[in-house]
Amino acid sequence: SLDKEADDIEAGRLLYVAATRAKSRLHLLACLKVDEDGELKMPAKRSLLGIAWRALEDAVRLPATVVAKSEERASLPAGELRRLPANFAVP
To answer: Where are the alpha helices (DSSP H) in 1-91?
Structure first.
């Protein structure tokens, strides 16, 4: 348990150092898992996202649910990539 605690402290320190090195902006991106009901699952507490989550959870905007229509799920095979059109522009 001491090794786990030391690893957690080191991960938190590395995250702090990386975040405080940003000169003008810091963008943190995350990928959360979704359960069968479409509800977002919280990140593992020992992950870097879990460490950041404890500090940032009140400031993070998340959708309430991510429920896809059953026919949409059936129409796309798992892992299929969809490309943006060539004329796509960021809004």
So the answer is: 2-20, 48-56, 70-75
First-to-last C-alpha distance (Å) of the chain? 48
Q: Specify whether the CB–CB gap between 46 and 33 falls below 8 A.
A: no
Token digits of residue 74? 């059936």
Distance separating alpha carbons of residues 46 and 38, to the nearest angstrom = 23
Whole-prediction pTM: 0.51
Q: Is the pLDDT of residue 73 over 60?
A: no
- DSSP letter (8 states) at residue 23: S
Two structure tokens written together for 44: 């593992």
Question: Are the C-beta atoms of residues 26 and 19 closer than 8 Å to each other?
Answer: yes
DSSP SS3 for 18: helix
Amino acid at 68: A
Q: What is the pLDDT of residues 62-71, one digit of tens each?
A: 665 555 544 4
Q: What is the largest CA-CA distance in the chain?
A: 54
